[in-house]
Amino acid sequence: MPENKGSVLTGIMFETEEIKLLPQTHAGDVVLHKSSDLFSTVKRMLDLLIASIALIVLSPILVPVMIILAFTGEREVFYFQKRIGYRNRPFNIWKFATMVKNSPNLGTGEITLRNDPRVTPFGRCLRMSKINELPQIINVFKGDMSIVGPRPLMEVSFKLYSPEVQRHIYKSRPGMTGIGSLVFRDEEKLLSDATNPRAMYAAIYPYKGALEIWYQQHASVYTDLGIIFLTAWSILFPKNNLVNKIFKDLPVRPKF
What we know:
By secondary structure, the chain is mostly helical. It has helices at 37-71, 121-129, 136-142, 155-158, 163-168, 179-183, 187-193, 197-203, 205-218, 221-236, 242-246; strands spanning 78-84, 90-96, 146-148, 175-177.
């Protein structure tokens, strides 16, 4: 673990009673604030609007994918998995089935590597294009998730966050996309290239936590729209460098 990575979350401070965003008191200190009722309402309305448009526009993709999955691989269309959600309550996330059954208990468990043998041939295409994540539109309609927010994790991964981050990260609904997903869009490669993928997986979580705390501090319609744009842009141009150009005050990424 790089020496400078431990400084990312050093001296975290949390303030839960203030309504406005408080300034950082000194390097490394993070102060959280409550989201306003107005922002929460607008965010929910945008979630429903975007999810509705996405469901209509993407139907020509979703329907054929469901048909193909029903007749190939494991013949399973959807995959449901328990994740940690809003206010740390568990919920079942929807995804297209891309791996063999019981995959979390096989191979590298919750860690998926490039050329992972648990991934089906068609599932590999879905994962590369991120189409496998689209059924989470249902989670958005149900209120389990938002379009933008911290990614919902399995409990084993959630426990890699510090206790402070665990207490605060899901005070906003988890998202289909988020700042952590953008910054770590190369995570699968990072883990695949590591000598010890499990050690690397644990090593990146302090920084992931810092990114999600940054989102809590900067949550706004502007931030959400920026993340949505960057997500679409990154699917088209995976090697782009726009994240740090648009969000210039992100925590500095350590060298892994």
